[in-house]
Every structure is written in structure tokens, then in C-alpha cells.
Amino acid sequence: MPIDPALLPFGINLLDAPLFTEGKAHEAFRLLRRERPVPWHPGTERLNGFWSLTKYEDILHVSRHPELFISSKGIVGAGLRDDGGYVPIRPGDGGISLITMDPPRHVKMRRLVNKGFTPRAVNAMEPSIRKVTNEILDRVASRNECDFVLEIASQLPLAVICGMMGLPQDVWPLMFELTNSVLGAGDPEYQSEVPEEVRGSGEAERQTSMGGEMRMLGYFAEIIEQRRREPQDDLISILLEADVDGELLTQQDILAFCFLIILAGNETTRNAISGGLVTLCEHPEERARLQADMSLIDGAVEEILRWTSPLHHMSRVATADTEIRGQKIASGDRVIMWYPSANRDEDIFPDPYRFDITRSPNDHLAFGIGEHFCLGAGFARKEMRVMFEELFRRFPDIQTAGPPDRLRSTFINGIKHLPVTFTPAR
After folding, report:
1. Residue 286 lies in a domain
2. Inter-helix orientation angle 284-292/377-394, to 10°
3. Cβ neighbours, 10 Å, residue 375
4. What CATH number did the domain enclosing 245 receive?
């Protein structure tokens, strides 16, 4: 049953994907920040209601108090659909994945893989990232046009994370497909395995997500067994030898790590790269500044992240009665942190609706903050930097040739397809 519009704050339905895909969300968030920054959003027959956090400082507060706002009861505001669809973001039952884990276990588990994501590790990978980037561009250079998402933006983070996990190149397309099934399950384009007559429904979303999840876990179960027999120099082999408080990780622990790393390692970066190109094409003056002086690339990457906010939200559950901005939050209530709203908060970012590649400071929350700050943020930044450096060096006149085809989601700010044209530099 759809939500009664009369119950919504100013009639704004944050469970409505077209609010995001049609570019209306920022105006809605601006109104909420000004008039009702912590509004209650009613639920549906299948989903509980929640409090929306639209201000930067409130999201900072929740993120920095994991003892008061926990992750183990689910971090997706619910796959966020009017008809109750749900996109799970963890395999199995219980908070076994890093992203749905609370301290102190979260700290210990995260420490196991931290060394693979340190600044030193990221910098050591730069030559490889640049080589892969140019191989990707080589494949499309002679055609003068391509689907930027499918053929360029998605390929770099996919290659990097699959390489770190030791996955053979012939399964990379499968990982891309299954990532879309799990995280893009609410989009009819990715519901090809369900009957056509139910596509677009909450049930189709549930079946698509669960089907992708089970196929991915089944694949990784086989890979884990292979690594037990023949260890390699990769993340999966490291996890098999790791222990927490003297105990080896369980099969479920390792599966959860693999599931999270492959999803997070390729989805958000692909969307940041795709969204970045769209944004630069929409702001030709800023693009010209960048191409005239590529030393501005680091600032450009940060502003792209602020502007695009590849992840729309995460959620937490209160463990005790509390208050946020004077609004009483009861124990057990869910709060949703809306990152696109925080990243255009007028109290934090001067002139927040201006895209400025030299903006400083630029303390955006595109990667979250606190205990659950994105583990792969360093790789995402490096991949974005290298991609735009090489892209503008080789295809300096690249332009979008049509509007982006956006993912139907209130969780991921995704782009499925983006036609581009270019003339390769001689």
C-alpha cells in the first residue's frame, strides 16, 4: 500500500526512486534542512518508519557514536521502496559483515584487511592502475564513441578489486553482473531473471537481489575452497590465515568479507567516475580549468565526490532514548543519514550549489565518517585521479552524447549507461 501523502513531511517521499533519478532530491533536501531537518518518514506494510537526518552535523554526531547508533540491525534504510522492496547488503543472518558490525568486533575485523588499503598500499598500486586504465582506453580508442559506464568507468574499479582478490579475468563480467543484481535490484533492467509481468515490483526486487547474492556467495565458496588447497598472494588467502583473538575466521566471516569487498570495491567508484564526467561536461568552465592545469585534479576529485555523493544513505538504530536537534529519538528507532543533503549543507559549504574544483576546505561525507568510514576510499580517489588524468590526456574533447541513464534506486546514486563521443589524441 502506498504511503498517504498527507503523512509525508511537505509531501516529500524519500522512498520514491524518481525523486532521485529525475533530479528532484536536492530541492527536497534543501526544504527539509531549512524547515524540518529531522523529519519523521512513515513506513509501509513491510517497512518501519524512520527519522531522516539532513544536516551535516547531525550525521557527524550519529556516525561518531556507534555505541548509541548501531549498525548490526541493518544499514540500508530498507531497499527503500513504496511497496516494501528490500535490498539486503549482507549475506546470511546476523551482523557478520563489516558494514553491519559494531565495536569492539568491528575494530578487530577491520584491522585484518586494513594493511591492504593503507596509503602506502594504494600508492604502490598506482603504476598498475595507470596501466589498466590505458588498456581500457585502448579498447575503445578506434571507435570514437562508447558507453562510458559499461566500457570505461566500470572496468577500472572492477579490474582493481578483482585483481586484489585474485579472481581470474574471465569471471570479472560475472562479478559486474552480480553486483548489479544485488545493488541495482530495484531497477527493472536488472530483473531479467524474474517474470516480465512482475518486474518493477518489490517482489521482483527481492528475488533479483537474493538471486544475485546466492550466486555470488556460491562462487566465493568455491574460490575459498581452492585457496585452502592452494593459497595465493591475494586478499582471500590472507583472510584464510587471519585470526581474531586467536581464532581463525569462520567460513561465514570470509564469505561476508568477499561479498562486501567485491560490492563496495566496484560499484561506488564506477558511479563516481561516471557522475564525475557528467558533472564536468555540465560545467565546462570548471572542466576547462582542470584540463588547463591538471595539478588541480585532487581538488576536482573531492568536489566530484561532494557533488555526486555516490551513496545516498546509510542507516543506524538507536540503542537508547536520545535527541537530535531537539527531536526525541526513542530506543529502537531507525535514523537514515542522507549524504547528498549533508554534502550541500549551507552551514558547512559556502555556496553549496556551485561546483568548484578548487573548493577548500571540502570535508564532504561521500565516504561516510567514523567507525564505518569507507575502507576503500584511498583506492577510489586514486582510481578517479588516474582515470581523469589519462582520459583527458588521450580523449581531450570527450563529451556526453546523451543524458545519463540513471539507476532506479534510493540507495545508490548510480548511472547505468552514458553515451560519449571523442577524438583520440594523436
Report:
1. yes
2. 90
3. 19
4. 1.10.630.10
